[in-house]
Design a protein that fits this description.
By secondary structure, the chain is of the alpha/beta class. 24% of the residues lie in helices and 29% in strands. The structure holds NADPH dihydro-nicotinamide-adenine-dinucleotide phosphate (NDP).
Length: 315
């Protein structure tokens, strides 16, 4: 298998990866960045980004990621397409296999592979992606002011997203497949007593419809043991809040992760328990999951990588 040795390897091309590449490039670490499965990351599937400081008019997610890539390349980052398919972090230099055909040996590694929002798996979710389907209320809620939206899920995220959306929308439905919410008691109380929120228990979303975007959702309500009722509701936005999956599988044998798979780092730093291996962005963040927080942690990871390489006398 083809082999290559680098000083600093960054995996993932969301705001965390690109910011790490900008900092590592400016620090003369000659970073190599592999873009991963979804070049540009989750922001490329959202609508406009209006909450990233510095863009008073908002910016399209894909455009912003292209700008970040250009900025990283300007400072010497080598941005490549390819997916990390295996990792050996048992000894330094660490080995990452790309596309099962090339091995990169690196002294410092920044894991910024992100997290993937879970979807129900309906064809309509793909059909209406960016046209009324979203997995991030903070990102897209603003577009649903005075409109009607549905949030799927019964956990804390679903309740939090529903409350956030209720501050903007006219009406929010929460679609819960069980007869109870899994969320914490305080969040349950908040959604159940909120005048704009209606919780639809024992209900599954099975499809969406609309001409130029989402105009409604098809639902199935379970009634007793074997009875079901099919009906539809007019909505303008369909939000998924059924959990995220951090993209950490290949690193799990080496770094510490929580029960969902989020990489656990040391305090507020991006340091993992493997020296020279850092985790930045959503792959290590079950809480905030914002572009700006990911970018901030990418910056920290590059600074840590520089200090690590410098302490080893490699730069
Ligand atoms: P959870 O796993 O807690 O909840 C997921 C919800 O989605 C559950 O109600 C689950 O239903 C439902 N669900 C999963 N798959 C499907 C499906 N295919 N169809 C329909 N419904 C589905 O995820 P969260 O993202 O809500 O929370 C993750 C963790 O983060 C939790 O520990 C949570 O407490 C924490 N968190 C804390 C917050 C805070 O403290 N402020 C805010 C947000 C999250 P079912 O119950 O039937 O499995």
């Amino acid at each position: 298998m083809e082999k290559e040795r680098v000083k600093c390897l960054i995996i993932g091309s969301g705001p965390a990866g690109y910011t790490a590449a900008i900092y590592a490039g400016r620090a003369n670490l000659s970073p190599v960045l592999y873009e991963g499965l979804q070049p540009g990351g989750q922001l490329t599937i959202t609508t406009d980004i209006e909450n990233f400081p510095g863009y008073p008019e908002g910016i399209n997610g894909t455009e912003m990621m292209e700008d970040l890539r250009k900025q990283a390349e300007k400072f010497g980052a080598d941005v490549r397409s390819g997916i990390a398919t295996a990792a050996d972090l048992s000894k330094s230099p660490y080995t990452i296999t790309i596309d099962e055909e090339k091995q990169i040996e690196t002294e410092a590694l920044i894991i910024s592979t992100g997290a993937t929002a879970k979807y129900l798996g309906l064809d309509d979710e793909k059909k209406y992606a960016g046209m009324g389907v979203s997995a991030c209320a903070t990102c897209d809620g603003f577009f649903y002011r005075k409109k009607v939206v549905a949030v799927v899920g019964g956990g804390d995220t679903a309740c939090e997203e529903a409350i956030y959306l209720a501050g903007l929308a006219k009406k929010v439905y929460i679609v819960v497949r069980k007869s109870y919410l899994r969320a914490s008691k305080i969040m349950q109380d908040r959604v159940l007593t909120h005048p704009k929120i209606e919780v639809l228990f024992e209900t599954n979303a099975v499809g969406l419809f609309g001409e130029n975007g989402v105009e409604g959702v098809n639902l199935v309500k379970r009634k007793g043991e074997s009875d079901e009722e099919n009906y539809s509701l007019p909505i303008d936005g369909f939000f998924l809040a059924i959990g995220h999956k951090p993209n950490s599988d290949i690193f799990k044998p080496y770094v510490e992760t929580d029960e969902t798979g989020y990489i656990i780092t040391e305090g507020n730093s991006p340091r993992t328990r493997v020296p020279g291996v850092f985790a930045a962005g959503d792959v290590a963040d079950p809480h905030y999951r914002q572009a700006i927080t990911a970018a901030g942690s990418g910056c920290k990871a590059a600074i840590e990588a520089e200090r690590y390489l410098s302490a080893k006398g490699l730069i």
